[in-house]
Design brief:
Blueprint lengths: L2 H4 L2 H21 L10 H15 L20 H14 L8 H11 L13 H9 L1
Protein name: Nitrous oxide-stimulated promoter family protein
Organism: Shewanella inventionis
InterPro entries: Uncharacterised_YgbA
Length: about 130
């Protein structure tokens, strides 16, 4: 199953946003990457981010990660995400202006309370299968 087949709606849009940021970051920091996308290290990060989005306890009501009270990334991956976003965030405005503005607006929303039980994308898929 393709990684984007797992996600729908807001989660898919968030994955596309992080993918755009990783592409900007990888192009600047890993010049010896393969010609078809990002380097292996960045691909692993995107796979990890995809899994975390799929399992986010908030599901489609997911806040931006820096506003989220539930920190689901491992510490080293959280640091890598922060590094990517700090570098690529300001550089998103020219190649992806709508994505950048939507992400900035989403960050202005207040932090939610505790997530509802079974709201993750993964739980939704399991309910649809049964």
């Amino acid at each position: 199953m393709s990684e984007t087949e797992l996600l729908t709606g807001k989660l898919l849009y968030e994955f596309r946003t992080i993918t755009a940021m990783v592409n900007i970051y990888c192009k600047a920091h890993h010049p010896m990457k393969p010609s078809h996308g990002v380097c292996e290290q960045c691909r692993e990060f995107l796979n990890y981010a995809n899994t975390r989005l799929d399992r986010c306890p908030y599901g489609q009501d997911k806040p931006t990660c820096n506003k989220c009270p539930v920190h689901c990334y491992k510490p080293h991956m959280k640091q890598k995400a922060r590094e990517i976003m700090i570098f690529a965030g300001p550089r998103m405005l020219l190649p992806h202006p709508i994505m950048a503005i939507k992400h900035l607006l989403a960050e202005r929303k207040p932090a939610p309370g505790l997530p509802p039980e079974g709201a993750s994308n993964r739980h939704e898929r399991k309910r649809q299968m049964s």
